[in-house]
Amino acid sequence: MNRAKIQEYIDQREEQRVDLYHYEEQSENDFLLNGHQYKLLKNYREGFDGEQLANRFSNILNKYDYIVGDWGYDQLRLKGFYDPDNPLFRPEQGVETIEDYLYEDCNFGCPYFIVRNCDVRLPKRRNRRHRREHSPAIRERRRKLNQPEPRKRRHQSAKRVKVGNHQQKFIIHQRVKRNQNEK
Hints:
This protein is of the alpha+beta class and 183 residues long. The chain contains four helices and eight strands; from the N terminus they run H-E-E-E-H-E-E-H-E-H-E-E.
């Protein structure tokens, strides 16, 4: 795949995403993104652009308390962080790590912004057990054999048979009981 073809796919994807999210400015620091309230906390080097945020935004970012957007090579990158009160909080994605993220993962001196999500929407948890019970898929259950362990099976014999170059299988036969009179 050449670069022209890749760029064509990127352009198609951007056309599909146009008007997916709508940005509405309410005041200098407050704005709506598809009717969802956000507040601009920091705008370093005029890094905030509401229209670009709307173009790059994804629903998965609704679960984060804070969203950091940084610019590198004329592209906006978004990353979410949790407040310690959020049930999804993990220390490596906590609000205290924003500064570390900016120093370690962003280009030095790049424009960035920090946005606070005023209405966090946690993803709905799905009960996997409940989903499995109603699944139309057929499941096979293994039944435990009511046989003694292989060493104690005197009434069976096993033969090893080669199938192909490096494969083999075992065939188990029932032993025929012979009368002692038929020798």
